[in-house]
Each structure stands twice: as C-alpha cells, then as structure tokens.
Design goal:
The protein is of the alpha/beta class. It is 30% helix and 24% strand. Helix 2 crosses helix 9, helix 6 packs parallel to helix 7 and helix 8 packs parallel to helix 9. The longest helix has 19 residues.
Amino acid sequence: MDNAILTQLTNQFGSPLYVYDAEKIQSQYYRLTKAFSKVESFKIYYAVKALSNVSILKVLKKLGSGLDTVSIEEVQLGLHAGFEPHEIIYTPNGVSLQEIELVAKLGVQINIDNLSILEQFGTNHPNIPVCIRINPHVMAGGNANISVGHIDSKFGISIHQIPHLLRIVENTEMHINGIHMHTGSDILDVEVFLYAAEILFETAKNFKDLEFIDFGSGFKVPYKKDDIETDVEEFGKKLTKRFLSFEKEYGRPITLAFEPGKFLVSEAGVFLANVNVVKQTTSTVFAGINSGFNHLIRPMLYGSQHHIENISNPKGKERFYTVVGYICETDTFANNRRINEIHEGDILCFRNAGAYCYSMASNYNSRVKPAEVLWLNNEAHLIRQRETFEDILRNQIEIDIATNSKIPV
C-alpha cells in the first residue's frame, strides 16, 4: 500500500486507524512454507494472540493455516471463524484445569506445560491425546519479556523433569501425541534455535506414538530500513535436513509444525495517526498525535522501535522529533527520531503494526479503540468499527449512591 492509499483510507475511516495488507500476510505464509517445502508433512498454526480479528483469522484459514491459541476465548474465535477443532492447538499457561477440560470437550488439541495439571488431566481423561510443552532451558529472544524458554521461565516442563513426566504418563496411561517448545520472540541466531531443536528431538525419543513436533516460532522481522531479521530460508534448509534425519531414526513420518504470529502479520500492518500539536521546548521538538500507548503499547512496554513516516510530507526536509501520545503520563513512541518535517494535521504512519498492537490496545484514559481495515484485493474492508463513548459505558452498571441502588438504564 502506497502513501496515497493510506492517506485516502485515513480520510475515509478517520484516525487513529489500523490497516492490514492481506497480500503481505499471504507472501509471508508462502515464504515459510517454501522454506520447509521438502518436509512431507508441514503445518503452520497462526498465533492468534498477535492479531485476533476474525477477518484476519479467515485470511489465514484460506491460506491453509491452523491456529495456536492460549485461551478458551481464542479457541472460540477460531471456531467462529470456521476452523475445525482439529486445526486448533490450545497452549495455555497458568489456567485452571476446568478451562482445559472445557476446551478438550470442543475437540481441540490440548498442549500442557505443567506436571501437576498433566497428572490431573491424564488421570481424568487418559484417552484424550495431549501434547507436552517442554522448556529447553535455552535463552533466546530479543527482550527479556519475550524470552520464554530459559530456566527461570514460567513456561513449559523443564527438561530436568523428564523422568517425572514419564512416570506420570506411565501411571495414567495417557496418550502423548505431540512435543512442543517455544523459546521466545525476535530470534536471530539460527544456531541457538537448532540447539534447542536437538533437545526437543532427544525428548521426543521417549514417546513412541507422536504425530507432530511443534517448534513454536519467534522469527525476527525487520523494524526499520536495513534491519536484521531471521534468515528463514537458511533456517529452513538446516532444520529440514535434521528433521528428515530424525524421522528416519524415529521410524515413521510425523508432522513438523510452527506457530508464527509476528512473522505473518507484523509487516502487514500499519498504524495511522494525525498530529495534534508540534511543541518546541528548550531541548526537544515534540510531535503529539491523536493516540497513545492505549492504542500501541509496544514502544513503552518493550522498548520496541516502529519506523515512523510522515506520509503527508514524504519529500520534506528531515528534522529530529520526539513523537508522543496524549496519555496523561510518559507516553513516547520515538525519541529524537529523524522524520520529514511535521506540521499539525499531518498523518504519521507507524510500520510493523500488525502484531501485538491492536490486540494489546486498551481503553486507558477512557479513550475509545481505533477502527481496523483490511486491504484485500485492492479494496478496503472495514473489519472493526471505531468504538464510541456508548461502548465505554456498555458493561458498566451505575449505582445510585444516595439510595445504594442501581440506576435504571
């Protein structure tokens, strides 16, 4: 999508606004499948938490993807979008046994990362196939908050607990049909990932009836011009070779699975906002936009960098700006960033806004959430309406303080 289209969409649907390019999602999907084209049985399960709009899920379904879910609500979204239960993997963390059992009744693939829950579930439901999430104790990922396979992580069953795990499986006679790991996001070092894969292969040898091995995901995408990213093609060649070798050792074919989220949708999304004010202080020029970390929290939460363009003045002279939001506390998108000269009313475009942006948005400061648009087959489709003040009030119940009773609506 060029700047003219993005400007048109901002004028048509207002701002702030999220826009997603279906063609980019498709190209990323095919890039990954091509990298593993020599694997006979290869499956992608899209990580719903990255961007959970039902229309986006339908785009992924049409491409042939399954879903990686972490909550019963994500499972329900997937079923609503038309996915069959067997196309969905459910990998929760810290949820109740009751929620896991409710999901199991739906026929979805269960993935358990806790010995206690594994034993309880296996005792109650020995005939329901279960995948096991392993913690390989490998530090990977570009940020401590998104590195989830190290020894201090709350995720997964430690490789040092394998003997205990095997005893639970033997005692309950439960059916283990998959092995899973996820080391973290923004992984650059292919060799680190391959090292973790070896741990998973070795663990898999303990189970004779596996149907799949799931390597999670975590591929890094570029966030700015000339940024580094995971070499998916190199990784595909190396892991394919090792996986085919493992299949021969194992004695029969199994499915190789991944659960990409950011890789599929991050670059497909942009966030568009108008500049409210340009404010000069003694040391800084601020560009204040009509949004804040209530709509795009990643820079404040993770220190992530989103490339910012002034699409209203793409050929203007570059100046240094600190781009900030309207939230009533520190609310910074970029510090001292070179951007084409900004004027009040200009449209700023934040790139890489497809993953973990709208899905982490909130109503902080009682602000409404933006609209979402899908650019599909050269047409704009509104896939989520902008919230209104009535949406803020919808689930609130007002109390008459004087009489200590509910106020009639």
